[in-house]
């Protein structure tokens, strides 16, 4: 139980990676502020219990959780999200900036300005806002007994490290998240605030349901991944909980790949 007495916000918590991360942190004792645009899980998700909202599932399993609606691309929403965490649970120890979007595959020739704006607003500005308001709160609250002030994990992608075919805006948005992560780690190391990112490879969530339902594309994604399966949300949740825990106290500014060796090739 690595998160007893700690409070965590997880954005994009209704589905996929965010849901698994929220459940994993709660299972280790954290009080969770679940946050999403919509409280219901995306129906294209792979979980068997999609009819139960993440916050309700945490409470059913004996944990503490509330839901706060927020669009991560809106400053007022993210500022209010952090405020609500403090009002409900007294402080903020862990911020997981996970909410993200990925539009359908197309090259920059077909991609529209609206596609670019949506992707950058959610994936990049959303993480920037999450870090901004979380760090502001972490600086103002008393540190924990070991002097640390808080941990931030940004859910990025292998698309932030290498070019993925037909995902121009997505790759640009995640590349920006990766270097923002390193920049913030430098500015706030002295305050003992860790800022790390994980870069998952291809994994089964609602985001890639369309591709995984197409046997040809599924076979391509599998063949591109050296490990003999694509990833799942537990692979992501376990890596995120490690980076958010005391076990990672001296790890900051890292981009941890969770990709079955995709980027090792
Ligand atoms: N699935 C993959 O293969 C994969 C690979 C690498 C990285 N990722 C990243 O993992 C993160 C989570 O994606 P997922 O695969 O779980 O997808 P998902 O679509 O299952 O879940 C994303 C969640 O984010 C929420 N969301 C979308 N826009 C939002 C906004 N503006 N404000 C608040 N919430 C919003 C959605 O409602 C949804 O619940 C994303 O950042 C994604 O880029 C996914």
Describe this structure in words.
The chain is an alpha/beta fold and 265 residues long. The chain has one domain: Rossmann fold, CATH 3.40.50.720. It is 41% helix and 14% strand. It has a seven-stranded parallel beta sheet with strand order 3-2-1-4-5-6-7, with helices on both faces. Helix 1 packs parallel to helix 2. The site of nicotinamide-adenine-dinucleotide has 30 residues, from helix 1.
Short structural description:
With 265 residues, the protein is an alpha/beta fold. The chain has helices spanning 16-27, 54-60, 75-89, 113-140, 168-188, 209-212, 215-224, 233-244, and strands at 7-11, 31-36, 65-69, 94-97, 150-155, 193-200, 255-258. The longest helix is centred in the middle third of the chain and has 28 residues, at 113-140.
Arithmetic mean pLDDT? 97
Strand order of the largest sheet: 3-2-1-4-5-6-7
Order of helices and strands: EHEHEHEHEHEHHHE
What's the domain count?
1
Q: Please tell me the CATH architecture by its name.
A: 3-Layer(aba) Sandwich
Weakly predicted, low-confidence segments: none
Please describe the biggest sheet, giving its number of strands, its sense, and whether it closes into a barrel.
7 strands, parallel
**What structural category characterises the helix and strand content?**
alpha/beta
Beta-strand segment tally:
7
End-to-end separation in angstroms reads 36 Å
Alpha carbon gyration radius: 17 Å
CATH superfamily: NAD(P)-binding Rossmann-like Domain
The portion of residues assigned to helices is 40-55%
Question: How would you classify the quaternary structure?
Answer: single chain
Q: What is the CATH class designation?
A: Alpha Beta
Gross morphology: globular
CATH topology: Rossmann fold
* Ligands and ions found: nicotinamide-adenine-dinucleotide
* Percentage of residues in strands: 5-15%
Number of helices: 8
């Amino acid at each position: 139980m690595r998160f007893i007495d700690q409070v965590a916000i997880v954005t994009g918590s209704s589905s996929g990676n965010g849901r698994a991360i929220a459940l994993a942190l709660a299972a280790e004792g954290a009080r969770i502020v679940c946050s999403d645009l919509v409280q219901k899980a995306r129906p294209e998700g792979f979980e068997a219990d999609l009819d139960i909202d993440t916050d309700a599932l945490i409470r059913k399993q004996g944990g503490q959780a509330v839901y706060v609606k927020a669009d991560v691309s809106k400053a007022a929403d993210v500022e209010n999200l952090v405020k609500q965490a403090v009002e409900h649970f007294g402080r903020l120890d862990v911020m997981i900036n996970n909410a993200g979007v990925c539009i359908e595959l197309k090259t920059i020739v077909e991609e529209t300005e609206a596609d670019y704006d949506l992707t950058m607003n959610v994936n990049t500005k959303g993480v920037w806002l999450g870090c901004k308001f979380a760090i502001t709160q972490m600086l103002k609250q008393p540190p924990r007994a070991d002097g640390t002030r808080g941990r931030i994990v940004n859910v990025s992608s292998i698309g932030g490290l290498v070019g993925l075919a037909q995902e121009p805006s997505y790759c640009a948005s995640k590349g920006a998240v990766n270097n923002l992560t390193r920049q913030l780690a430098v500015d706030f190391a002295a305050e003992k605030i860790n800022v790390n990112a994980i870069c998952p490879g291809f994994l089964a969530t609602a985001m890639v349901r369309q591709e995984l339902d197409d046997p040809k594309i599924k076979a391509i994604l599998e063949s591109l991944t050296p490990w003999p399966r694509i990833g799942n949300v537990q692979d992501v949740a376990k890596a995120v909980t490690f980076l958010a825990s005391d076990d990672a106290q001296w790890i900051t500014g890292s981009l941890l790949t969770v990709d079955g060796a995709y980027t090792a090739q």
